Amino acid sequence: MHIKKGDTVIVIAGKDKGKKGKVLSVNPKTDRIIIENVNMVTKHQKPSMKVQQGGIVHKESAIHVSNVLLFDAKAKAGTRVKFKDLENGKKVRVSVKTGEVLD
Questions:
Q1: How do residues 25-79 score in pLDDT, each as one tens digit?
Q2: How many domains does the chain have?
Q3: What is the CATH number of the domain that holds 66?
Q4: Which residues pair with 91 in a beta bridge?
Q5: How far apart are CA 37 and CA 14, in angstroms?
Q6: I want to staple 68 with a disulfide (CB 3.0 to 4.6 A). Which of 7, 9, 10, 24 is the partner?
């Protein structure tokens, strides 16, 4: 998967198109990621031992990885990612737009 936890991404499709945020979690099995303050949903929480105060809670929901691009700070835009093997055998991500190593 070309997106990792902690990356800054920009949404390119859906109701939150154009929003930027930090990746909170990645699920490679379903190809979905959770982004900070993107794809917010309303959940009705029942009071329990864990959550003393019930009520309406706003939280992030998963979004498909194909709907986001990695944000390149140098280009100040979203960019696709390609993988490159270095001489020491390490595999790194490279920005297609600028050619800069991202890892």
A1: 999 999 999 999 999 999 999 999 988 888 999 999 999 999 999 999 999 999 9
A2: 1
A3: 2.30.30.30
A4: 85
A5: 14
A6: 9
Q: Is residue 84 part of a domain?
A: no
Chain position carrying tokens 């297609």:
96
* CA angle (79 as vertex; 73, 85 as ends), nearest 5: 95
Residue type, 70: L
Q: Over the stretch 73-85, which tens digit does the pLDDT of each residue have? A: 999 999 999 999 9
User: Which single residue is written with the structure tokens 């303050």?
Assistant: 37
Angle at 27 between CA 43 and CA 54, to 5 degrees: 20
Residue 83 lies in a domain: no
Count of CA atoms in the C-beta half-sphere (13 A) of 61 = 10
